[in-house]
Specification:
Strands 1-2 form a two-stranded antiparallel sheet. Helices cover about 45% and strands about 5% of the residues. It has 3 helices and 2 strands.
Length: about 80
C-alpha cells in the first residue's frame, strides 16, 4: 500500500508527527491502539473519521520506516 496519500506531516500539527489525512490522529496513536489489543473495528468505532485504509496506511508507514532503519549502515 502506498501510504503517502494518507499519512501527512505538517510542522504545526501535533508537533510535526505523521498524522492521518491531516487529522489530529497520529500514526503512533493508531499503532499504539493496535498494540494494546484494540481491533480494527474498535478503532473505527471510536474514531469515525478513520477508515480501514487509514489503519493499513499506518502499518505500511511503520513497516517502511523499520525497513529504512535496518538499511542504515552501522558506524
Amino acid at each position: 500500500m502506498d501510504y503517502r496519500a494518507i499519512v501527512t506531516i505538517e510542522p504545526g500539527k501535533r508537533g510535526g508527527k505523521p498524522c492521518i489525512r491531516g487529522l489530529r490522529i497520529t500514526v503512533y496513536d493508531v499503532l499504539e491502539y493496535l498494540a494494546s489489543g484494540m481491533s480494527e473495528a474498535e478503532i473505527l468505532a471510536d474514531f469515525p473519521d478513520l477508515t480501514s485504509d487509514d489503519i493499513r496506511a499506518c502499518l505500511s508507514f511503520a513497516a517502511d520506516r523499520e525497513r529504512r532503519l535496518l538499511s542504515v549502515p552501522a558506524a
